[in-house]
Design a protein that fits this description.
Blueprint: E1 2-7, H1 12-23, E2 27-33, E3 39-41, E4 47-49, H2 54-61, E5 65-68, H3 75-82, E6 88-91, H4 98-110, E7 114-117, H5 123-135, E8 141-148, H6 158-171, E9 191-193, E10 196-202, E11 208-216, E12 219-225, H7 234-243, E13 249-252
The structure holds nicotinamide-adenine-dinucleotide.
């Protein structure tokens, strides 16, 4: 049995993870934590009260894995406190920078543990990124449009950044568009990563869609991923919890465990 603590259990993703862990035969939900202490009703009708202190939750419940879906501005603070306790972490919270990822790797090695940071746990998104990197070999001109609900705090999404990084590994820097292009409305061409443009849409109604559009001579190619509910992330989270047990250091991206 893999003992799991869910941090951010009162949130949208945390709540979904709680349900999934309870449904898994090889997993046991040993604790839930959030910033509030509140009774949480589990799928079998029983209740579990959230710890309002993540470190206390890890110490009291001794999980094999802590799953974290909290906030971009708190996740590093949490990891700095819990990794010295040796707990393995499966992190879905977005907003990491190359610098913070490096720190996570160092902390995990120092405390002989492992952290999976996956900007996107949906298998469809992982495949989309792989296909996008493949397509970039033939279509180096590319723009990314990511569309999320309007409660999302960070932009662009971690998935868009990861997609752009994987494409950049294939085609390098490429200045796109007209050399004399002028923006008459500030930022209308989106963010620039390695010369490719990323556009972030934030509207109620979306979960987390992404389109990668490639332009070639006389044709375009679009690769899209459209999750319809947060359930799409759960197979990836479960896989992460199972496969991280014999790992060390930082694993960045679910594809590394597939
Ligand atoms: N990797 C993925 O596949 C994936 C998918 C969807 C969302 N996300 C990311 O997951 C994160 C959470 O998304 P959400 O939609 O569930 O957000 P949410 O706002 O619904 O939930 C976040 C929860 O974290 C709690 N929280 C805040 N600070 C905390 C702290 N210091 N300690 C413990 N809990 C704390 C909040 O009270 C809340 O319950 C975001 O960063 C989002 O971008 C990742």
């Amino acid at each position: 049995m893999i003992k799991v603590l869910v941090n951010g259990a009162l949130g949208r993703m945390g709540g979904e993870v709680v349900k999934q862990v309870c449904a898994e035969k090889e997993m046991e939900l040993v604790g839930v934590s959030d910033i509030f202490s509140k009774p949480l009703t589990l799928p079998d009708g029983s209740t579990m009260t959230t710890y309002s202190d993540t470190v206390a939750a890890v110490k009291a419940t001794k999980p094999d894995v802590m799953v974290d879906f909290t906030r971009p501005d708190v996740v590093m603070v949490t990891l700095r406190k819990v990794l010295p306790l040796g707990v393995r972490c499966v992190v879905g919270t977005t907003g990491f920078t190359p610098h913070s990822l490096e720190e996570v790797d160092q902390l995990a090695h120092k405390h002989d543990t492992a952290v999976l940071v996956a900007p996107n746990f949906s298998l469809g998104a992982v495949v989309m990124i792989k296909l996008a990197a493949e397509a970039a070999k033939y279509f180096p001109n590319v723009e990314i449009i990511e569309k999320h609900h309007d409660k999302k705090l960070d932009a662009p999404s971690g998935t868009a950044i990861l997609t752009a990084q994987k494409i950049a590994e294939v085609r390098g820097y490429l200045r796109q568009g007209h050399v004399n292009e002028i923006e008459t409305l500030r930022n209308v061409r989106g963010g620039d990563m390695q010369g490719m443009r990323i556009h972030s849409v934030r509207l109620p109604g979306y979960v987390a869609s992404q389109e990668v559009i490639f332009g070639g001579q006389g044709e375009t190619l679009r690769i899209c991923n459209d999750p319809v509910s947060r359930e799409c992330y759960m197979p990836g989270v479960v896989l992460g919890c199972k496969r991280i047990l014999d790992k060390k250091g930082l694993i960045y991206g679910l594809d590394k465990l597939l």
